[in-house]
Amino acid sequence: MRLMIVVASIREGRIGLPIAEWVREKAEADGRFEIDWADLKEIDLPLMTEPNHPKLGQYTHEHTKRWSARVDACDAFIFVQPEYNYSFAPSLKNALDYLHREWKRKPVGTVSYGGISGGTRGTTAIRPTELVLGLAPTTVNVELAWAAKQIDGGRFVPRDSNNDLLAAMLDEIVELDGALRPLRK
């Protein structure tokens, strides 16, 4: 099963990168996944530049064609996303908006972070976009309140509860993929 881990924050000094590295380590150690590491800072998609509606799949730019091929090749996703001003990261919304059919009937889990809410409001704000694109969100999400306090020496130090939730989310991604895979054909 090909799982794309999307690092949504593109800010300098972002704590999302060490959090996403923890997610990748756990997913790789799990053994059920082939990982596609998608750091939106490295991918550097410009603000939506395609002239045609994504539903048409008539992409004109090479960056879109590359992004489309990567997303299309994946079976599931984990979005590692911050909460910005009670909402989602614009870079994640932009990456979602570039495509359409490539997301359809695929599971998505969320590892969110922020202040006291742990990124819950950002997850809630992006949910309508995920649903209209046909993504199937997990019921288990990892919400990291005050996550910056768990960064030590540039590494994210998870609590046992963080590891337990991530393991449960990975299990649910596998279950959802099993149910949705026949519908994608």
What is the topology?
Layout: E1 2-7, H1 16-30, E2 34-39, H2 40-43, H3 62-72, E3 76-82, H4 90-97, E4 107-114, H5 120-132, E5 136-137, E6 142-145, E7 151-152, E8 155-156, H6 160-184
Parallel strand pairs: 1-2, 1-3, 3-4, 4-5, 4-6
Antiparallel strand pairs: 7-8
Helix pairs in contact: 1-6
Written description of the protein model:
This protein has helices spanning 16-30, 40-43, 62-72, 90-97, 120-132, 160-184; strands at 2-7, 34-39, 76-82, 107-114, 136-137, 142-145, 151-152, 155-156. Strands 1, 2, 3, 4, 5 and 6 form a 6-stranded parallel β-sheet that branches. Helix content is 41%, strand content 20%. It starts with a strand and ends with a helix. With 185 residues, the chain is α/β, with parallel strands linked by helices. It has 6 helices and 8 strands; from the N terminus they run E-H-E-H-H-E-H-E-H-E-E-E-E-H. Strand 7 (151-152) and strand 8 (155-156) form a beta hairpin. The chain has one domain: Rossmann fold (3-Layer(aba) Sandwich). It is globular and about 45 Å long.
For the residues shown, what is the average pLDDT? 97
Number of domains: 1
Shape: globular
Radius of gyration computed on alpha carbons: 16 Å
- Looking at CATH, which topology would you report? Rossmann fold
Give the CA-CA distance, first to last residue.
15 Å
Care to count the β-strands?
8
CATH class wording: Alpha Beta
Give unreliable regions as ranges: none
